[in-house]
Design a protein that fits this description.
The structure is a homodimer of 201-residue chains. The first copy, chain A, is mostly helical and 201 residues long. Chain A folds into two domains: 82 residues, Winged helix-like DNA-binding domain superfamily/Winged helix DNA-binding domain (Arc Repressor Mutant, subunit A), CATH 1.10.10; 96 residues. Chain A is 60% helix and 7% strand. Chain A has a three-stranded antiparallel β-sheet with strand order 1-3-2. The first copy, chain A, starts with a helix and ends in an 8-residue tail after the last helix. The interface between A and B is large, with 91 and 91 residues. Chain A binds a DNA duplex (30 and 30 nucleotides) through helix 2 and helix 3.
Chain lengths: 201, 201
DNA sequence: TGTTGCTATGTATAGAATGACATATGTTAC
DNA sequence: GTAACATATGTCATTCTATACATAGCAACA
């Protein structure tokens, strides 16, 4: 029973609601895609593997105005597998951050171009923050009851969306700080170097 | 001239100093590994590919008390390739965060076990923050002159290390927030749900 | 009738990453 | 002597990922 990271993503979505592979692919674009992206060519084979191991089942559902679909449902065994994974230490620890990677070689770059790149990236994170904040607000407005209990899907979605907001703000804050340093006159002052607003420890 | 992310990592390290594959593998564990991890079985073939494309060169260096090594050096063409990549929009956009992924299914988990997992993870980030802060402090203490100019390797290392601190604090802050919610008595109050200390926008 | 577009499910292929396997030199400690 | 350990470089098998290719139903519109 060797489940991959993508496998757990799919189990997590199916734990909330039964879905088709196509639906799962959509979910792995917008809401969940901020944390784990994948496209349909990975999802369909992965679903087949999960079914082989008895973690999901599917049922063909005919539709009137659309092609038929395979609706996948989590099995009790799939649910247990997911529950176990949740509280384990991180299984796939490889962290990758291309932006910080570029930062590490920033001393070679054209100052003006680099500042522009960072400001563009800050803007992307502003947009991402807005999307995540929308999820937070929707849950606060329309599911305030469910949010008071930690065993609801809404609660889990809420803390995940807050993480999205938090990560986007951190990234944006850092991008703008570096952009300002690149655009400032040298020599930089100590105050400028210390001017990164840090999240509270 | 199709350079992979790992390729750029290696070019970025070699731009600072010529190194052997073994040295690069060490660097991709501790300092740079926080942003891009890799092991030697990827590095050696990658170096060969970079050399084929004329971005790096190597020279065999005999050592008295150790086995001989291949010291790789960045070529002018490699330097240009790196410089170009730096200011491009992100080329490898896939973002993956296993922790937020787990959070999304947290409603299924055992509260006590989940809180323990999150506190363990917070502790890991505290340690990571300390390591990154050490780099920041070292640079501040021993390279304050170089930090005033943005075209020094020290400046780039400084902003990258600050990012490490920033990311670790954000992660720790969020983990402890969720752990507190899981350990609190239900129903949760609105104040508790809003109590995540956010990095400034 | 044809074209565009969304739904829906797959395969093929090439590249990348992981972990295991494999080898060799030299130092230090027992 | 030999065992453990750090340095040093590589390969191999398997798995994972990304991109493109491929097919098909149905609706809306021109």
């Amino acid at each position: 029973m060797n489940v991959t990271a993508l496998g757990y993503v799919l189990l997590g979505l199916l734990a909330r609601e039964s879905r088709s592979g196509y639906d799962l692919a959509q979910n792995l674009r917008r809401p969940v895609g901020f944390f784990w992206a994948a496209n349909h060519s990975q999802i369909y084979p992965q679903l087949a593997r999960l079914e082989e191991e008895g973690l999901v089942e599917h049922e063909v559902v005919d539709q009137r105005d659309r092609p038929a679909k395979k609706v996948y449902t989590l099995t009790p065994r799939g649910r247990e597998t997911l529950r176990t994974w949740l509280v384990e230490p991180l299984t796939f620890p490889t962290y990758r951050d291309e932006l910080t990677l570029k930062a590490y070689s920033l001393w070679l770059a054209d100052r003006v171009e680099a500042a522009r790149m960072l400001r563009e990236h800050a803007e992307e994170h502003r947009a991402r923050e807005a999307v995540c904040q929308t999820y937070v607000d929707d849950l606060t407005d329309h599911a305030s009851e469910a949010l008071t209990r930690v065993d609801t899907p809404e609660f889990a979605a809420y803390v995940a969306a807050q993480r999205g907001v938090s990560i986007a703000r951190e990234a944006r804050s850092w991008c703008l700080w570096v952009a300002r340093l690149l655009e400032a006159q040298t020599p930089l002052t100590e105050a400028q170097l210390r001017s990164l607003p840090m999240p509270p420890s």
